[in-house]
Write a sequence for this structure.
């Protein structure tokens, strides 16, 4: 936990997924199949590039699973139906667009 801020998103993912969280160096990360960043403000954000190295398949299956966990939690506590957006998982903008559509002033 050294140097990592606590967040609801991070806690939820640690509870629901088999993820590894540890201090590492750039070389360690570049050896990973996929990488994502989790935070309360960005939820889950796939890492597509670090320096000159690109993760071609971002978001990968673990990142998509993390997004699904977070979005299901959002659905459980709101009136949002995020299912149509799961196929396009990997972009929190889709969640924001769903929320805006649901809460836009139509009058």
């Amino acid at each position: 936990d050294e140097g990592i801020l606590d967040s609801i998103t991070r806690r939820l993912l640690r509870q629901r997924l088999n993820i590894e969280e540890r201090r590492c160096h750039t070389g360690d990360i570049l050896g990973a199949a996929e990488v994502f960043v989790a935070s309360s403000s960005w939820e889950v954000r796939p890492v597509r590039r670090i320096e000159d190295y690109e993760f071609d398949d971002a978001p990968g299956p673990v990142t998509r699973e993390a997004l699904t966990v977070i979005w299901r939690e959002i659905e459980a506590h709101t009136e949002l139906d995020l299912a149509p957006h799961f196929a396009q998982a990997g972009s929190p903008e889709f969640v924001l667009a769903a929320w805006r559509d649901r809460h836009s002033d139509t009058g």
